[in-house]
Structure prediction request, 231 residues.
Amino acid sequence: MAKKRKKKLRIVAEQYSRDEMAGKDLSYGDMYEYNLSYADLSGTDFSNAYLEGADFSKANLTKATLTNADLTNADLTNTDLTGADFSNANLTNADLTGADLSDADFTGANLKDARLLHADLLDTNFTNADFDGANLEDATSNGSNFAGANFKGAWVSRTDFLDSKNFHTASNFNLACGSRKARFFPPENRPKGSRLPERKTATRMVTKKSTKKSTKNPTSNPARLAARLLK
Prediction:
């Protein structure tokens, strides 16, 4: 029975060529390790689809629906995800490096060990998202909602959190790697209990010559001794 169901789901995904998928209903489809790079998938319904290992690099997924989809190990590098719905999707170990997540919805999404380096997070909804082990280094978040998000083990070095919403309800940011180098504006948005950036303080250089008392005998120098005798 399971084999028949899997075969049926595979057929659903193969009804269209990659150039005909925009706006189509591919919910519950089986697209394991499909190559959809550069494809126009705007408005496509991938809800509950099996997309493990699929290649969406540089594809257009604007306003696509991927709720409850399995995107484990999927390649979403430099992909346009503007307005897409990833609520409750599984993005474990997915690569979203350089992707545009503006206005996308990741409510309840599993982003464990995902890579979001240099990603654009403009007004993105990450309510209750799990960033455990995710890498957000050099990503820019502007106006995004992080209510209830989990940052345990996440990498946030040089991540910009600009005007982020509900960050005070996010959990485990103090356990995120590089949290000292995460930038918040306004500064009061920084989660309570998280480590503050290290302040660079100017240290006064003191040479050994100025701190160590001379132990030399002044009379050991013949010139000095002669000057003393002449006084």
In short: The helical segments are 2-13, 208-211, 222-230.
